[in-house]
Amino acid sequence: MDIPICAGVSYIEPMQLSLSTPLRLLVRQALRQFTDPYRRYRHAKLIHASRVAIGILASIALTTGIHLPHGEWASITLLVVIGGLQHHGNIRKKAAERALGTLIGASVGLALILLEAWLHLPLLTYLLMAIACGVGGYYAIGKGGYIALLSAITLVIVAGHGDAEISDGLWRSADVLIGIAIALLFSFALPLYATYSWRYKLSDSLRDCARLYARIVGGLPLNDEEHQKILTRQGAMLVQLRSLMPSVAKEISVPSTELEAVQRGLRSIVGMLEMLSTSRLRDIDDVRRARVRQALSGEDRRIRELLIGMARALKFGTLTRLEPLPPLHPPPPPPEAVSAEVERYVWVTAQLLEQIDSLRLSLAQLSHKWNI
Protein backbone atom coordinates (compact mmCIF):
# COMPACT_ATOMS: atom_id res chain seq x y z
CA MET A 1 0.00 0.00 0.00
CA ASP A 2 1.38 3.38 -1.00
CA ILE A 3 1.65 5.95 1.71
CA PRO A 4 0.56 9.38 0.49
CA ILE A 5 3.19 12.05 0.82
CA CYS A 6 2.10 15.65 1.06
CA ALA A 7 3.81 18.21 -1.11
CA GLY A 8 6.94 19.66 0.44
CA VAL A 9 7.06 17.05 3.23
CA SER A 10 9.52 14.19 3.33
CA TYR A 11 9.48 11.25 5.70
CA ILE A 12 13.27 11.48 5.89
CA GLU A 13 13.09 14.77 7.78
CA PRO A 14 11.79 13.32 11.10
CA MET A 15 14.52 10.66 10.95
CA GLN A 16 17.14 13.32 10.27
CA LEU A 17 15.79 15.39 13.12
CA SER A 18 15.91 12.43 15.53
CA LEU A 19 19.50 11.67 14.49
CA SER A 20 20.75 15.25 14.46
CA THR A 21 19.22 16.32 17.77
CA PRO A 22 21.51 14.11 19.91
CA LEU A 23 24.45 15.23 17.78
CA ARG A 24 23.60 18.88 18.31
CA LEU A 25 23.24 18.28 22.04
CA LEU A 26 26.58 16.48 22.10
CA VAL A 27 28.31 19.33 20.25
CA ARG A 28 26.66 21.92 22.48
CA GLN A 29 27.73 20.03 25.61
CA ALA A 30 31.30 19.76 24.30
CA LEU A 31 31.43 23.47 23.51
CA ARG A 32 30.13 24.35 26.97
CA GLN A 33 33.31 22.88 28.43
CA PHE A 34 35.20 25.70 26.71
CA THR A 35 32.69 28.57 26.63
CA ASP A 36 31.27 28.33 30.15
CA PRO A 37 33.26 30.71 32.41
CA TYR A 38 32.95 28.54 35.51
CA ARG A 39 34.24 25.44 33.73
CA ARG A 40 37.16 27.46 32.37
CA TYR A 41 37.87 28.66 35.91
CA ARG A 42 37.81 25.11 37.29
CA HIS A 43 40.15 23.77 34.58
CA ALA A 44 42.33 26.88 34.36
CA LYS A 45 45.62 25.05 34.95
CA LEU A 46 44.92 22.47 32.25
CA ILE A 47 43.86 25.13 29.74
CA HIS A 48 46.91 27.24 30.52
CA ALA A 49 49.29 24.28 30.20
CA SER A 50 47.76 23.35 26.83
CA ARG A 51 48.00 26.93 25.61
CA VAL A 52 51.69 27.20 26.55
CA ALA A 53 52.50 23.86 24.90
CA ILE A 54 50.69 24.75 21.67
CA GLY A 55 52.30 28.19 21.71
CA ILE A 56 55.78 26.64 21.92
CA LEU A 57 54.95 24.34 18.99
CA ALA A 58 53.76 27.34 16.98
CA SER A 59 56.94 29.26 17.82
CA ILE A 60 59.16 26.35 16.77
CA ALA A 61 57.18 25.77 13.57
CA LEU A 62 57.32 29.46 12.60
CA THR A 63 61.00 30.10 13.31
CA THR A 64 62.23 26.83 11.82
CA GLY A 65 59.83 27.03 8.89
CA ILE A 66 61.26 30.35 7.72
CA HIS A 67 64.79 29.39 8.86
CA LEU A 68 65.02 32.29 11.31
CA PRO A 69 68.44 32.44 13.02
CA HIS A 70 68.43 32.13 16.83
CA GLY A 71 64.75 31.11 16.75
CA GLU A 72 65.00 29.66 20.25
CA TRP A 73 64.79 33.20 21.64
CA ALA A 74 61.21 33.46 20.36
CA SER A 75 60.27 30.38 22.40
CA ILE A 76 62.13 31.71 25.45
CA THR A 77 60.30 35.04 25.16
CA LEU A 78 56.94 33.28 24.86
CA LEU A 79 57.66 31.41 28.09
CA VAL A 80 58.73 34.63 29.82
CA VAL A 81 55.54 36.44 28.79
CA ILE A 82 52.85 33.79 29.38
CA GLY A 83 54.57 30.86 31.12
CA GLY A 84 53.69 31.92 34.65
CA LEU A 85 50.73 34.17 33.81
CA GLN A 86 47.38 32.59 33.12
CA HIS A 87 45.16 35.66 33.31
CA HIS A 88 44.49 37.70 30.21
CA GLY A 89 45.00 41.07 31.89
CA ASN A 90 48.42 40.07 33.21
CA ILE A 91 49.52 38.71 29.84
CA ARG A 92 48.68 41.96 28.06
CA LYS A 93 50.48 44.01 30.71
CA LYS A 94 53.58 41.81 30.72
CA ALA A 95 53.68 41.69 26.92
CA ALA A 96 53.57 45.50 26.74
CA GLU A 97 56.31 45.79 29.36
CA ARG A 98 58.32 43.08 27.59
CA ALA A 99 58.04 44.92 24.26
CA LEU A 100 59.17 48.22 25.81
CA GLY A 101 62.04 46.53 27.66
CA THR A 102 63.03 44.74 24.46
CA LEU A 103 63.18 47.96 22.46
CA ILE A 104 65.28 49.67 25.11
CA GLY A 105 67.63 46.71 25.63
CA ALA A 106 67.96 45.97 21.92
CA SER A 107 68.76 49.60 21.12
CA VAL A 108 71.48 49.78 23.76
CA GLY A 109 72.82 46.35 22.76
CA LEU A 110 73.07 47.28 19.10
CA ALA A 111 74.78 50.55 20.05
CA LEU A 112 77.38 48.62 22.06
CA ILE A 113 78.01 46.25 19.13
CA LEU A 114 78.58 49.22 16.80
CA LEU A 115 80.84 50.89 19.38
CA GLU A 116 82.97 47.75 19.76
CA ALA A 117 83.19 47.29 15.99
CA TRP A 118 84.34 50.91 15.63
CA LEU A 119 86.77 51.30 18.57
CA HIS A 120 87.85 47.69 19.21
CA LEU A 121 88.17 48.39 22.94
CA PRO A 122 86.69 45.35 24.74
CA LEU A 123 87.40 46.72 28.23
CA LEU A 124 85.44 49.89 27.45
CA THR A 125 82.58 47.81 26.05
CA TYR A 126 82.51 45.62 29.17
CA LEU A 127 82.51 48.69 31.40
CA LEU A 128 79.65 50.34 29.50
CA MET A 129 77.67 47.08 29.55
CA ALA A 130 78.19 46.75 33.30
CA ILE A 131 77.05 50.35 33.83
CA ALA A 132 73.95 49.80 31.67
CA CYS A 133 73.05 46.61 33.56
CA GLY A 134 73.69 48.41 36.85
CA VAL A 135 71.24 51.13 35.84
CA GLY A 136 68.71 48.39 34.98
CA GLY A 137 69.27 46.81 38.38
CA TYR A 138 68.82 50.19 40.08
CA TYR A 139 65.42 50.77 38.50
CA ALA A 140 64.44 47.08 38.74
CA ILE A 141 63.59 47.69 42.41
CA GLY A 142 60.42 49.73 42.42
CA LYS A 143 57.77 50.86 39.96
CA GLY A 144 58.55 49.83 36.40
CA GLY A 145 61.04 47.29 37.67
CA TYR A 146 59.99 44.61 35.18
CA ILE A 147 60.78 46.91 32.22
CA ALA A 148 64.19 47.82 33.65
CA LEU A 149 65.09 44.18 34.34
CA LEU A 150 64.04 43.03 30.88
CA SER A 151 65.99 45.89 29.31
CA ALA A 152 69.16 44.60 30.96
CA ILE A 153 68.39 40.99 30.00
CA THR A 154 67.68 41.92 26.36
CA LEU A 155 70.86 43.98 26.25
CA VAL A 156 72.91 40.88 27.08
CA ILE A 157 70.85 38.70 24.72
CA VAL A 158 71.40 41.05 21.77
CA ALA A 159 74.99 42.19 22.38
CA GLY A 160 76.45 39.13 24.06
CA HIS A 161 79.66 40.50 25.57
CA GLY A 162 79.86 43.17 22.93
CA ASP A 163 81.48 40.88 20.40
CA ALA A 164 78.30 39.75 18.61
CA GLU A 165 77.71 40.51 14.96
CA ILE A 166 75.28 43.30 14.18
CA SER A 167 73.22 40.89 12.10
CA ASP A 168 72.95 38.49 15.07
CA GLY A 169 71.79 41.33 17.28
CA LEU A 170 69.11 42.31 14.80
CA TRP A 171 67.90 38.71 14.42
CA ARG A 172 67.74 38.19 18.18
CA SER A 173 65.72 41.39 18.58
CA ALA A 174 63.34 40.17 15.86
CA ASP A 175 63.04 36.77 17.59
CA VAL A 176 62.07 38.38 20.87
CA LEU A 177 59.38 40.50 19.21
CA ILE A 178 58.05 37.41 17.40
CA GLY A 179 57.82 35.60 20.72
CA ILE A 180 55.82 38.48 22.17
CA ALA A 181 53.44 38.44 19.20
CA ILE A 182 52.85 34.69 19.51
CA ALA A 183 52.28 35.02 23.27
CA LEU A 184 49.67 37.73 22.71
CA LEU A 185 48.00 35.69 19.98
CA PHE A 186 47.61 32.67 22.24
CA SER A 187 46.45 34.80 25.15
CA PHE A 188 43.25 35.39 23.14
CA ALA A 189 42.68 31.63 22.67
CA LEU A 190 40.23 30.62 25.42
CA PRO A 191 41.30 33.60 27.57
CA LEU A 192 41.41 32.93 31.31
CA TYR A 193 40.24 36.24 32.66
CA ALA A 194 41.28 37.28 36.15
CA THR A 195 37.69 38.51 36.42
CA TYR A 196 36.52 34.87 36.48
CA SER A 197 38.79 34.06 39.42
CA TRP A 198 37.76 37.26 41.19
CA ARG A 199 34.05 36.50 40.73
CA TYR A 200 34.13 32.89 41.86
CA LYS A 201 36.50 33.46 44.77
CA LEU A 202 34.31 36.32 45.97
CA SER A 203 31.26 34.06 45.60
CA ASP A 204 32.92 31.34 47.69
CA SER A 205 33.87 33.91 50.31
CA LEU A 206 30.28 35.16 50.58
CA ARG A 207 29.02 31.60 50.97
CA ASP A 208 31.54 31.08 53.76
CA CYS A 209 30.24 34.27 55.39
CA ALA A 210 26.72 32.82 55.23
CA ARG A 211 27.93 29.57 56.85
CA LEU A 212 29.77 31.48 59.56
CA TYR A 213 26.71 33.61 60.30
CA ALA A 214 24.50 30.51 60.50
CA ARG A 215 26.91 28.98 63.03
CA ILE A 216 26.91 32.15 65.14
CA VAL A 217 23.12 32.49 65.15
CA GLY A 218 22.72 28.76 65.76
CA GLY A 219 24.89 28.95 68.87
CA LEU A 220 27.52 26.50 67.61
CA PRO A 221 30.90 26.54 69.39
CA LEU A 222 33.43 29.09 68.21
CA ASN A 223 36.55 27.09 68.99
CA ASP A 224 35.79 24.00 66.94
CA GLU A 225 37.73 23.03 63.82
CA GLU A 226 35.05 24.02 61.29
CA HIS A 227 34.71 27.55 62.67
CA GLN A 228 38.45 28.14 62.63
CA LYS A 229 38.72 26.66 59.14
CA ILE A 230 36.17 29.17 57.80
CA LEU A 231 37.97 32.11 59.43
CA THR A 232 41.31 30.94 58.00
CA ARG A 233 39.80 30.63 54.51
CA GLN A 234 38.38 34.13 54.76
CA GLY A 235 41.77 35.61 55.59
CA ALA A 236 43.45 33.78 52.71
CA MET A 237 40.63 34.73 50.31
CA LEU A 238 41.00 38.43 51.08
CA VAL A 239 44.69 38.22 50.15
CA GLN A 240 43.94 36.36 46.89
CA LEU A 241 41.23 38.82 45.89
CA ARG A 242 43.58 41.72 46.54
CA SER A 243 46.22 40.22 44.22
CA LEU A 244 43.66 39.85 41.40
CA MET A 245 42.38 43.43 41.52
CA PRO A 246 44.96 45.10 39.19
CA SER A 247 44.32 42.55 36.42
CA VAL A 248 40.54 42.70 36.91
CA ALA A 249 40.60 46.50 36.68
CA LYS A 250 42.39 46.30 33.32
CA GLU A 251 40.17 43.54 31.92
CA ILE A 252 36.83 45.18 32.67
CA SER A 253 38.05 48.79 32.40
CA VAL A 254 36.99 50.05 35.81
CA PRO A 255 38.92 52.25 38.25
CA SER A 256 40.71 50.32 40.97
CA THR A 257 38.86 52.42 43.54
CA GLU A 258 35.57 50.73 42.63
CA LEU A 259 37.06 47.27 43.14
CA GLU A 260 38.63 48.54 46.34
CA ALA A 261 35.12 49.44 47.58
CA VAL A 262 34.08 45.79 47.06
CA GLN A 263 37.21 44.55 48.83
CA ARG A 264 36.65 46.95 51.70
CA GLY A 265 33.01 45.86 51.97
CA LEU A 266 33.94 42.18 52.20
CA ARG A 267 36.63 42.93 54.77
CA SER A 268 34.08 44.88 56.85
CA ILE A 269 31.60 41.99 56.69
CA VAL A 270 34.24 39.52 57.89
CA GLY A 271 35.19 41.91 60.69
CA MET A 272 31.54 42.31 61.73
CA LEU A 273 31.08 38.54 61.80
CA GLU A 274 34.08 38.20 64.09
CA MET A 275 32.60 40.89 66.35
CA LEU A 276 29.28 39.08 66.30
CA SER A 277 31.10 35.90 67.31
CA THR A 278 32.02 37.56 70.60
CA SER A 279 28.48 38.90 71.15
CA ARG A 280 26.62 35.63 71.52
CA LEU A 281 24.21 36.52 74.34
CA ARG A 282 26.01 34.15 76.71
CA ASP A 283 25.15 36.09 79.87
CA ILE A 284 21.37 35.93 79.56
CA ASP A 285 18.94 33.09 80.10
CA ASP A 286 17.49 30.96 77.30
CA VAL A 287 14.08 32.67 77.37
CA ARG A 288 15.46 36.18 76.88
CA ARG A 289 17.93 34.92 74.29
CA ALA A 290 15.06 33.38 72.32
CA ARG A 291 13.13 36.68 72.52
CA VAL A 292 16.07 38.66 71.16
CA ARG A 293 16.56 36.26 68.29
CA GLN A 294 12.85 36.29 67.54
CA ALA A 295 12.90 40.08 67.45
CA LEU A 296 15.84 39.93 64.99
CA SER A 297 14.40 37.13 62.86
CA GLY A 298 13.71 39.50 59.96
CA GLU A 299 17.33 40.76 60.00
CA ASP A 300 18.60 37.18 60.19
CA ARG A 301 16.61 36.12 57.12
CA ARG A 302 17.65 39.26 55.25
CA ILE A 303 21.37 38.71 55.99
CA ARG A 304 21.29 35.11 54.77
CA GLU A 305 19.24 36.01 51.71
CA LEU A 306 21.62 38.80 50.69
CA LEU A 307 24.78 36.76 51.21
CA ILE A 308 23.51 33.76 49.23
CA GLY A 309 21.94 36.02 46.60
CA MET A 310 25.22 37.84 45.94
CA ALA A 311 27.09 34.54 45.82
CA ARG A 312 24.69 33.15 43.21
CA ALA A 313 24.77 36.35 41.17
CA LEU A 314 28.57 36.21 41.01
CA LYS A 315 28.71 32.50 40.20
CA PHE A 316 25.84 32.14 37.74
CA GLY A 317 25.35 35.71 36.50
CA THR A 318 21.76 35.91 37.83
CA LEU A 319 21.78 39.66 38.32
CA THR A 320 18.20 39.71 39.60
CA ARG A 321 19.64 38.47 42.90
CA LEU A 322 21.33 41.88 43.25
CA GLU A 323 18.11 43.87 43.09
CA PRO A 324 17.15 45.82 46.26
CA LEU A 325 14.90 44.04 48.70
CA PRO A 326 11.82 45.64 50.32
CA PRO A 327 12.62 47.52 53.54
CA LEU A 328 12.35 45.74 56.84
CA HIS A 329 10.00 46.88 59.58
CA PRO A 330 11.97 47.85 62.68
CA PRO A 331 11.76 45.21 65.41
CA PRO A 332 9.63 46.15 68.43
CA PRO A 333 11.63 47.15 71.50
CA PRO A 334 11.84 44.46 74.20
CA PRO A 335 9.48 45.09 77.14
CA GLU A 336 12.19 44.70 79.77
CA ALA A 337 15.50 46.49 80.19
CA VAL A 338 18.24 45.03 78.05
CA SER A 339 21.82 44.34 79.03
CA ALA A 340 24.87 45.87 77.39
CA GLU A 341 25.60 42.56 75.67
CA VAL A 342 22.15 42.47 74.08
CA GLU A 343 22.52 46.07 72.91
CA ARG A 344 25.92 45.24 71.40
CA TYR A 345 24.52 42.14 69.66
CA VAL A 346 21.63 44.13 68.16
CA TRP A 347 23.93 46.98 67.07
CA VAL A 348 26.47 44.65 65.43
CA THR A 349 23.67 42.80 63.60
CA ALA A 350 22.30 46.09 62.26
CA GLN A 351 25.78 47.18 61.14
CA LEU A 352 26.38 43.81 59.50
CA LEU A 353 23.15 44.10 57.52
CA GLU A 354 24.09 47.62 56.45
CA GLN A 355 27.53 46.52 55.25
CA ILE A 356 26.08 43.56 53.33
CA ASP A 357 23.52 45.74 51.57
CA SER A 358 26.25 48.25 50.72
CA LEU A 359 28.29 45.45 49.13
CA ARG A 360 25.23 44.33 47.17
CA LEU A 361 24.85 47.86 45.81
CA SER A 362 28.53 48.01 44.79
CA LEU A 363 28.27 44.69 42.94
CA ALA A 364 25.04 45.74 41.25
CA GLN A 365 26.60 48.97 39.98
CA LEU A 366 29.56 47.02 38.54
CA SER A 367 27.53 44.07 37.25
CA HIS A 368 27.49 45.25 33.60
CA LYS A 369 31.30 45.09 33.70
CA TRP A 370 32.17 41.91 35.61
CA ASN A 371 29.37 39.74 34.20
CA ILE A 372 31.42 38.59 31.17
Automatic annotation (TrEMBL):
GO terms for molecular function: transmembrane transporter activity. The chain crosses the membrane at residues 49-67, 123-141, 146-164, 176-196. It comes from Pararobbsia alpina. It is found in: Cell membrane. This is Inner membrane protein YeeA. GO terms for cellular component: plasma membrane. Keywords: Cell membrane, Membrane, Transmembrane, Transmembrane helix, Transport. InterPro entries: PHBA_efflux_AaeB/fusaric-R. It is a multi-pass membrane protein. It comes from the Bacteria. It holds the Pfam family FUSC. PANTHER family: MULTIDRUG RESISTANCE PROTEIN MDTO, P-HYDROXYBENZOIC ACID EFFLUX PUMP SUBUNIT-RELATED.
